[in-house]
Design a protein that fits this description.
It is a single chain. The protein is of the alpha/beta class and 309 residues long. It has one domain (34-211, 257-308): 3-Layer(aba) Sandwich (Rossmann fold). It has ten helices and nine strands. The longest helix has 29 residues, at 3-31. It is globular. Residues 39-165 form the DUF4886 domain. Residues 1-26 form the signal peptide. Keywords: Signal. This is DUF4886 domain-containing protein. One of its GO terms (molecular function) is hydrolase activity, acting on ester bonds.
Length: 309
């Protein structure tokens, strides 16, 4: 056998060994891939904001586990009141508001990487409503999950045609959506700074879209709201909120909660924040959100995440 042939065989063997090692390494990496374990202490707004997060995470190649301690309309104080009830008496039903479980029971189910807290949207503009409950919850989470990162989920302002806006001080409410966003943003940032925790900027992303001349929602002033008959509805294009819908024979209005587009925007923000990568590459979108609007929502989400970091 010639020296050249032996050299060639050795080179081929070396290449095969390196290639095999890379394949095994990749398989091992895929097998040992760690899930991100996310736990939410919130309400319907945290449900809205994470509705499409599993789909986005899957498309992005991320394994996600979500735990929830959510009560509709719940404030920081209410969550803490339930904790105190459970600590006084583990058998007190008041301490087990989460489908018969306490916050301690839910948080103790495995190890959580990220735990989020948030204020009830109607109180979000009044910084005096955050303490001592935000700090109490923070300390409680860190006691049970010392390695978890506690994060503030910044909720959003109501739709511009809402009939009510958040409290901004005792006995005083915001006059419009912009003031609600400004006051709630300040309250979230003040408290987050005191606790030294980061913020998921959903409120900023919502306002970035809503305040846009091109992409923001505009009320349909040509619609007769007082004499409307089913199934007629006003033009609600580019709305991020539920808005008007028919509930039997009644024209119902929800200016607070997110619709599909708002839930999509919320999940895009969470994706960018949690994984430190742009959601603009993702193709998933709800069927009710058109491609052009979806592109703008992805841009707004990523811009908001980058600005808050």
């Amino acid at each position: 056998m010639s020296k050249l042939l032996r050299t060639g065989q050795h080179s081929l063997l070396f290449f095969f060994l390196i290639f095999s090692a890379e394949v095994v390494g990749a398989q091992s990496s895929a097998t040992n891939k760690q899930s991100l374990r996310l736990f939410l202490i919130g309400n319907s707004f945290s449900q809205n904001a994470t509705k499409y997060l599993p789909q986005l995470s899957k498309e992005g190649g991320h394994e996600l586990v979500i735990g929830r301690a959510e009560i509709g309309g719940s404030s920081l104080q209410r969550h803490w009141d339930h904790v105190e009830a459970a600590e006084r008496d583990p058998n007190d039903p008041k301490g087990k508001p989460y489908n018969g479980k306490s916050l301690k029971m839910l948080l103790s189910d495995g190890v959580w990487d990220v735990v989020t807290i948030q204020q009830a949207s109607i109180l979000s503009g009044d910084v005096s409503t955050y303490e001592p409950y935000a700090r109490n919850l923070y300390n409680y989470v860190k006691k049970l999950q010392p390695n978890a990162q506690v994060v503030f989920h910044q909720t959003w302002a109501y739709r511009i045609d809402s009939n009510d806006f958040s409290r901004i001080a005792p006995g005083d409410s915001a006059k419009n959506a912009q003031q609600m966003w400004e006051k709630s943003r300040a309250a979230y940032h003040t408290t987050a700074h005191e606790l030294n925790i980061p913020i998921i900027p959903n409120g900023d992303a919502f306002w970035r879209v809503n305040s846009s001349k091109k992409w923001g929602f505009q009320k349909d002033n040509s619609f007769d709201y007082n004499s409307a008959k089913a199934p007629a509805l006003p033009n609600q294009a580019k709305s991020l909120h539920m808005g008007y819908r028919w509930d039997k024979e009644k024209l119902a209005f929800d200016s607070h909660h997110a619709n599909d587009a708002g839930c999509y925007l919320g999940a895009l923000v969470w994706y960018g924040f949690l994984y430190h990568e742009s959601p603009k590459k993702l193709t998933f979108r709800p069927n009710s959100v058109d491609e052009a609007f979806a592109r703008q929502l992805k841009k707004a989400a990523w811009t908001s995440v980058r600005k808050v970091r």
